[in-house]
Amino acid sequence: MLPLILAQSTSGSGASSALSNLISIIVYLAGAFFCWKIYEKCGVENAWFAWIPILGTYANFQAGDEENPLLWTILLFVPCINIVAIVKLIIAWVTICRKLEKSPWLLLLMPCFSVLILGYLAYG
Fold this sequence. Notes:
mainly alpha, DUF5684, transmembrane, membrane, transmembrane helix
C-alpha cells in the first residue's frame, strides 16, 4: 500500500508533497508496529512479518486461526476469487478481536480510524 500512496501525483508544491509522503510513511510505520504487537499477543510465531506488506497479510491469517493462511494470502491476488479471500480476511480480524477480548464491532471503524483501532487492539 505504501508504494501506491507514494506514487500518487499531486498538483501541490514540492513541500506539500514531501509532507504528504512523510505523513503516509508515519501512518504506515505506526500501523505495522501495532499489527506486530497484535500478532505477538495472538501468538504468531513470526510476528515481525507485520512490517512486510504481503507477509503481514499472511501473519494476519495466522493470527486469525485460518486453516490455510498461505493459500488465502495468494488468493487475495487472484481477480474475482479475491472477494472470497477478503471475506476470510474480515473473519480473521473478527477472530483476532475475540482473542484479544475486544468487540468485533470496532472493525466497522477501520476504514476511517485504522491506526487508532489497531493501537487500541494492541494496547487497550
